[in-house]
Amino acid sequence: MNNDFTCGFIGLGLIGGSIARAIRQTYPDSRLMAYEINQDSLNAATDDGVINTPLSSMDESLSECDYIFLCAPVSENNGNLAELKKYLSPSCILTDVGSVKTEIHKQIEAAGLSGRFIGGHPMAGSERCGYINSRALLLQNAYYILTPCKEVPEDAVSAFRELIASLGAIPLVLDFALHDYVTAAISHLPHVVAACLVNLIKQEDSGDGIMKMIAAGGFKDITRIASSSPLMWQQICLANGKNISALLGSFIHSLIRIQEEIDEARPENLYTFFDEARGYRDSFIETSSGPIKKVFSIRIDIADEPGALAAVATILALQQISIKNIGITHNREQEDGVLRVEFYEQESIEKATGILAAKGYTIY
Prior knowledge:
Low-confidence stretches: none
Order of helices and strands: EHEHEEHEHEEHEHHHHHHEHEEHE
Strand content: 15-25%
Radius of gyration: 23 Å
Number of helices: 13
Mean pLDDT: 88
Number of strands: 12
Largest sheet: 8 strands, mixed
Shape: globular
Helix content: 40-55%
């Protein structure tokens, strides 16, 4: 792909900033401009050399863009589209980064921009937000779903797909309605379920909080996503409520069925239930990012003595390996290893495993 294109960003938070960083890293001669209401973020992106042209407002500078990424909160899309329409060149492709696509497609159609819109959903993220936490590697090996309007020329879709692939992501073209149903199943519903499980423990726990104290291992893993932004998930449920509700109904039916199997103590049916789930789960393809983020972690056997944890941390630090989280696992009902170390990326796991194994540590 040519290096001499121009991209505009409306909003420069975690996702917009990460896309901008990835473009700057891959296409150092590209021209990037951004409008962001957070002046500190805009200044930081300019100082980093990620953005060439900071914008104090949406203006005629945007007419030079080959691509414009809508990365502001979805509630601002209508106003932003009305303003952008004044400055778009006939060949400019508009895209967004929202996790629900139906509403933005409706807004695009109402604005008369269907011939130039390719919806986008990078299935990557972080519990941290804002430009300051953005990084080019966020897109690496993450599915990046594209939902082009039917009126967009095929060569424009192909060119944008090539751009996304060149940033290290895995582009996947879907109809926008199918996208919303799929993400409701594999992302939105799990967040609802995780929050329900956490609230159930909160409700059923004893006064001294014994459930909370030992909630680790499997429970902590499957409810990790409940720590996500409540505002974001409120908005997702409002935007994709029809699909989420339909799938939630199916899930409730499945829960009732397994409750009956447990109540009736049917051993064969119970075994089949768990065996089929295990088999299907083990067939999943692992990617480094997604709507439910993959955890890059290892578990290590260490001696129960002063300095043991610090020794591991020091070894990794001396090798310039960044640790995201580290701590002793008290509930190892479904886990091996005493010490759990979490990293930011897969490469750190591989490097840390080799270094620690060479020093005699047992790694899981």
